[in-house]
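Complex record, two chains
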Amino acid sequence: MAGIIKVSHLQYHYPDGTVGLNDVSFEVQEGETMVILGANGTGKSTLFMNLMGVLDGVGSVEIMGMPLYKANLKEIRRGMGMVFQNPDDQLFCPTVMDDVSFGPLNQGQSPDQVIDAAQKALALVDLQGYESRTPHHLSFGERKRAAIATVLSMNPSILLLDEPTSGLDPRSVSKFINILYTLKSQGKTLLIVTHDLFLTQEIADRVLVFSEEKKPVAIGNYKEILSNHDLLLKNNLIHQHRHRHDEVVHEHEHRHGYVHEH
Amino acid sequence: MKSTSLLERLDPRTKIISFLSVIFCMVLTPITRIRDFGLYFLLILAIGFCSRITPRQILRKMCIAIPFVLFIAMFVPFLKEGTVFCSLKISHWKFDVTYEGILTFLNIIVKSTLSVFLLAIATATTPFPDFLKGLDMLRAPRLLVMLMSFMYRYIFVLIEEARRLMRARSLRYFGSRRGELFRTTGYMVGTLFIRTYERAERIYSAMILRGFSGEALSVKRFRISALDILFMAGIIVSLVCIISGIVNKIERAKASGAHLWQGL
């Protein structure tokens, strides 16, 4: 097991001076699924943009043994793909097929290889037969899955997923979790940004918690983190409010996605 | 596989080339050869019969474009100088309608109606992404093709965004001074612009992350089949016939009772 992503003391300020990331350090092992938990606006997506080299922060980032420099960007992006939160940003071509083949074509694969890769990626997300459809005419869940396929067709070994389950109905979520399981079993390293604790419990090996100070405050096994109520409550991942159970009214924390017993 | 009409089976390149050449020839034909336009009409009608679209569909598509043409052409008869055909008197203004003006008016109307007719057939039988691919393969400027492709992809996203903004406004708008209305409209336009701008940045990074380096490549290659060559040859032969006025000659020959070949 080698650290496939190593981040140390990464800082990022937005052009207007707002702090984006505040001294972020962590390491991801090859083949593991790490979920990055954090409330809205804690810098999770900013972290992804930094890892992909779109935003340029201060500090050191090493991916697949290569330091994140401009010269290595092409090679790094070959092995690491990112799926944006909004599928309308990810799908920019007139048809699904154009979108899914966009990456492999730019990598210089032959047309046959490209078609093969695209078909495989579409099969993986259960969207066979959608090749000539227009992204605009797909449902939100289908668009989310098509967005993943556009990155899978490049066959990256690391996948960064930004809020993969946001805005999805329960059936689409379970479909999505199945896809993630398949990817996991293929030995891909997954980095998932979310505040969906249900997804975290289902898929995470380790969990990194971002605080509202835009830096990680805890890292650990998913059981450790998810059972640490104080930590979750403090970092705005669960909420606490008054509950009524027939006659008894009391206050306790509430975890999204969980059925809880009293 | 579902059955498709001849026009839908053709390569988009074939359609672009043959339809453009029909329009090109038509536009260069002087309006005084009115009989030729009847022949063009028959040719386009024949092309229409190669597809499975109904006249109703075509008419509906034509209705979108024709009013614009009419609006532009409407004033021509009054503006052109020449021999006066008749004049209109409205109080103390006098408008002269000239022969030349009427001819130009007819010129615009006939040519544009026929062109729009052909375009209606073309758009009904060619999916827009295929049309873009055809343009790209014909070496149309890539920037232009990409621009059109983004427009096709995002125009509806943009319209939806605008509609959401408008709905949000109307739910909170209870009628106020007119100035207020203009102000909120201004804000909405600004918001829409900023959102679009930010979206464009995200899309661009999504492209960069998938290895975009300035070239939009595409995989679905079309192939020119025998059918395409046949279709294109048919169009070109008919165009040559129309332009050379062969039909007129045959008729004249018939009238004089001579043998057909002598007429040619």
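Note: The longest helix of chain B spans residues 178-209.
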